[in-house]
Each structure stands twice: as C-alpha cells, then as structure tokens.
Specification:
Radius of gyration: 19 Å
Distance between the termini: 45 Å
Number of domains: 2
Shape: globular
Oligomer: single chain
CATH superfamily of the largest domain: NAD(P)-binding Rossmann-like Domain
Helix content: 40-55%
CATH topology of the largest domain: Rossmann fold
Structural class: alpha/beta
Strand content: 5-15%
Number of helices: 16
Strand order of the largest sheet: 3-2-1-4-5-6-7-8
CATH architecture of the largest domain: 3-Layer(aba) Sandwich
Number of strands: 8
Largest sheet: 8 strands, mixed
Order of helices and strands: EHEHEHEHEHEHEHEHHHHHHHHH
Length: 331
C-alpha cells in the first residue's frame, strides 16, 4: 500500500521506516527541499537518526501537493502547534474521504482545541483517526516491542489503520474514544516535565511515583470534563503513555524538566533540548481550560508557574504539601 507521511521529524521518520520495512511504499513530506533531496539520494534523514539507513521504499517530497497525490492514506506527523498552518495547505488539496492518521500529541494553544476538533474545522472532508500510547521513536525504529491505540469515531476506520500499521513488534489496539486518546496523549507531557524537575532536584522515588499517580488523577478529571471515557485513560493512551514519558530519558518533556530543575530558564532548557517538547505548550492550554471548566489541577498549575512565572519549584512543592487534606479519588 502507498502511504503519505506529512512531516520528517523523529517520529515521522521512524514511522516511515516501520511501514516500509513491512511492505508499504512511503512518501514523506518535508518543507525543506534539501532534506527531501538528501533522503531520496542517500536514504538517510540527516536531521534525525542520521546514521540509520532508511528502506528504499521511503522517498521524500518538498511539494505537499505531490505528497498528497501519492496516496489517499495520510499520516500526520507535524507538531501540534504547526498543524493549523499545514491543515490550511491540505484543505484545498485533499479529496473527499482521505484517511488521516494523526501521530501528534498536544492541544492547540491559540484555541484550546484538541486535534480532532482542529481537523474537523479545517478539513471536514477527511476521515480522521489518531494514534497514541507509549511509543518512543528511537525504539520504534529498532522494532522493539511497542503497543499503542488507534481511535476513530468510526470503529471500522480504527480497525483499518490497526491492520495497516500493526506489524513485527508493533501491536495496535483499536477504539472509538478519540477524546480520551487525545487528552491522555497531550496532558501526560505536563507531568513528564514535573518528573524531570523532580529528578533534577533529587526528590526521590516516592515523589516520582506520587507525581505520576496524582498527575493521572488530574488527567482523568480533565478528561471526564471533556467527555473522555475513564477506561481509555487507564489504558495505553493514558497510564501507559504517562509512565514511559515520565521515566524515560528518550522523553523530550522529561529532559526539558531536567533542565528546568537544574536551574535553567524555559528558553535555555528548550534551546539545549533542540527539539519540540509539546508539554511546554500544552500546559498553557490545559491550565486555561481547567480554569474555564472548573477542574482542579494543582500539579499542572505548578508546572505552568515554574515555566512561565519563573517561580521556584521548591517553593511550589511546599505549597502543594500545605494544601487541605482530601480524599484520594474525586471526580
């Protein structure tokens, strides 16, 4: 099968290699003409995984019209905050019934929209699905055991993508809770930043476990308000993604937190990272929505205050522990 991938970053590249390795023909789109030419000539992506040879079934184009004409099955691997711009390019080109699988995890800052809402607004002609779960690009590239979830409003659409992308050690489950999947994928990045800060401050394993558990409670409260199924958030797209993002050195958001906890500003830590850490954007949209919907999210608010108000993590930890005592589970 022919498949188009929009985006040539780490996950887009790893996903392209995975699909090609198991028999699909893949065309990646990148804005960068030189990068596209380099991929076509040398079968490597020098901007990420530069030492890895890509299968010859992977090619690249810098013309988005060419990429979209290649296939009716399109994978979106563009960072969340750039998807509105890219959807603007897609809208006049995509035919009715194009099948779109979104790999990004985040919430649009300017509108507070989840990604399925953004695509419905700008590209109503496409059939939308999203993939999420514990899946670092570095491990997908090596075909290391990975399990994820694909969700679509139509179960048949989720099943279709499940069959297309499941191969080797990459196992895909199917579902219909797009809201739950996208909420889990977006919000877990906030708590990964907190986990990185905790590690840098040497707060210990007890604190790390508490962050993950209390973070999950916030995610479930937030998700419930938006219409997510709690079972989705207790599965791969919620707990699974939260665990891998909070405890893996592959996690950009965890590494951003390490930098912040070591005394760097958000700007300094982001520049050192050299990659997009979606949690730094997502926390702004989540805190704003939480206030609008009256959802209690003290950990998310603390991360926001550290990143954007330059408040001391140590001071905020004391504030969190001084909060009134409550029951553990409240929705």
């Amino acid at each position: 099968m022919k498949i188009t991938i929009l985006g040539a970053g780490s996950f887009g590249t790893a996903f392209a290699a995975h699909l090609a390795l198991f028999g699909h023909e893949v065309k990646m789109w990148t804005r960068n003409c030189e990068r596209a030419e380099y991929i076509n000539k040398f079968h490597k992506n020098r901007s990420c995984f530069s030492e890895t040879d890509l299968p010859h079934a992977v090619s690249a184009a810098s013309d988005i019209a060419e990429a979209l004409a290649f296939s009716q099955h399109v994978v979106m691997a563009i960072p969340t905050q750039s998807q509105r711009e890219v959807c603007g390019k897609i809208a006049p080109l995509a035919k009715e019934g194009v099948h779109m699988l979104n790999l990004a995890k985040g919430i649009e800052i300017s509108t507070g929209s989840l990604l399925h809402q953004l695509h419905k607004e700008l590209c109503p002609q496409i059939v939308y699905s999203a993939l999420s779960g514990p899946s670092h690009a570095e491990e997908l590239l090596l075909d290391m055991p990975t399990t994820v979830v694909v969700a679509s409003k139509e179960e048949s659409e989720a099943r279709m993508w499940q069959k297309i992308v499941s191969a080797g050690s990459f196992r895909v489950y199917a579902g219909t809770d797009v809201i739950g999947l996208e909420v889990g994928g977006a919000t877990k990045n906030i708590y990964a930043i907190a986990a990185g800060i905790s590690r840098a401050l040497k707060l210990g394993d007890n604190a790390s476990a508490a962050l993950a558990c209390r973070g999950l409670a916030e995610i479930m409260r937030f998700g419930a308000k938006l219409g997510a199924n709690p079972l989705t958030l207790s599965g791969l797209a919620g707990v699974g993604d939260l665990i891998v993002t909070c405890y893996s050195i592959h996690s950009r958001n965890f590494r951003l937190g390490l930098g912040i906890g070591s005394g760097k500003t958000l700007k300094e830590a982001s520049e050192e990272l050299g990659q997009v850490a979606e949690g730094a954007y997502t926390v702004r949209a989540v805190v704003e929505n939480a206030q609008k919907f009256d959802v209690e999210m003290p950990l998310a608010e603390a991360v926001y205050r550290v990143l954007y108000k330059n408040e001391s993590p140590t001071k905020l930890i004391k504030e969190l522990f001084a909060r009134p005592l409550k029951a553990e589970m409240r929705f």
